[in-house]
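hey so i finally got around to running both of the ones u sent me last week. sorry it took forever, my laptop kept dying halfway thru and i had to restart like 3 times lol. anyway pasting them below in the order u listed, first the sequence line then the structure token line for each. didnt double check formatting much so if smth looks off just lmk and ill redo it

first one:
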Amino acid sequence: MAPALGDTASNTEPSHSPDRSVTPVPVPPTGTLAEAGELLRALAAPVRIAIVLQLRSGERCVHELVEGLGVAQPLISQHLRVLKAARVVRGQRRGREVVYRLADDHLAHIVADAVAHVAEMEEDQRP
């Protein structure tokens, strides 16, 4: 069994050669790792990924996301609630509509990189 995060004691011998030096990488606090996991969970639905990709190019209201993604309005609204709760998107009321935008460009890069990675893997598997 692997040691838990933060455990320093180990009953097994190192699996690397003794002449190889490995510099330890600092591990963020457990709370930070847990929040990162929650963030990734919030991004784990295909419709939410598509919403983030749409918002990457600019703010959108719900009806624009419905038209752009071809998904029913109640489903878009449900996914936006999850993304808002995870602080991935922000909504701002403008008259009768709420306009949504990404809270942070880092998230768009994470999603775009994940999509690009999968596309590259699919290309590599083609005959």
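and the second one:
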Amino acid sequence: MKKTNWRVPAADRSLSTFVEALIGLKIVVELNNDAIARGVLESSDGGMNLTLTEASLQPLQGEAQSMTFLFVKGASIRYIHFPSAVKPETRVEVRRKQILGARRQHLSSLDQQQRLQKGVDGTLKSTSDPEAGMATSE
């Protein structure tokens, strides 16, 4: 069997990619100020900023506050807990395939746009002059 030297890009091996793989799950986030946020992970970015829906925020002392939307700044996160039934390797692999598919689709659309601009497909070149490229009869 032939061995390949294919490597996963560094961006796809980051902790933020793992957190993005948890989108849609109910998670618990421990914050640096000892507060605890709970909710469904709606979105995450490269800075580990999180958006939770159906959330609650429990400060160290005091009552929990329920809210429909909670933004958690990545720098304030201490720990992220996720359900024990979740298989992290499976979720990450699915997320990596989604990212790869999106990259391929983007590159394909860029390639198609470049071909249209060059006129490779037999179509007119895209220019700012609407009269350009039109055949004239004399």
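quick thing i noticed on the 2nd:
The radius of gyration is 24 Å.
anyway thats it, ttyl
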